[in-house]
Specification:
Elements lengths: L3 H17 L2 H7 L3 E7 L4 E8 L2 E6 L8 E5 L1 H9 L4 H6 L3 E4 L2 H11 L2
Parallel strand pairs: 1-4
Antiparallel strand pairs: 1-2, 2-3, 4-5
Helix pairs in contact: 1-3
Length: 114
């Protein structure tokens, strides 16, 4: 099991990765949405706003009202961010759970597969 500090670093790496995506490409996939990522085995949730700039306003406060909600184990979060696990296969095998509208799911899958 990864530590909370490891997961925080991984989540912030994801923020950095999304910020480096070409703005024109990112704008094709991103609509303004609130996002939360719950690390199930640690009981910690990171929240952010997904917009044209990427993930911004990152916090560990969760109001439970995010439009896109991810749930993942700590080791799986690290594997996803480090590129050892692909988003679609993590979702298909149940390692990653996503609550979002169908359109948001398609956009998120495309964005995270870049």
């Amino acid at each position: 099991m990864a530590s909370e500090a490891d997961c925080d670093k991984a989540f912030r790496s994801l923020v950095d990765l999304l910020a480096r995506v070409d703005p024109d490409v990112r704008s094709k996939y991103v609509l303004e949405r609130t996002v939360s990522c719950r690390v199930t085995d640690l009981g910690v949730t990171w929240s952010a706003r997904l917009c044209d700039e990427g993930l911004v306003d990152v916090t560990t406060e969760d109001d439970g009202k995010a439009q896109i909600r991810l749930s993942v184990g700590s080791d799986d979060l690290l594997a996803l961010v480090e590129g050892r696990q692909a988003f679609p296969s993590a979702f298909a095998t149940g390692k990653l759970r996503v609550q979002a509208s169908p359109m948001d799911m398609l956009r998120l899958t495309a964005l995270l597969s870049l």
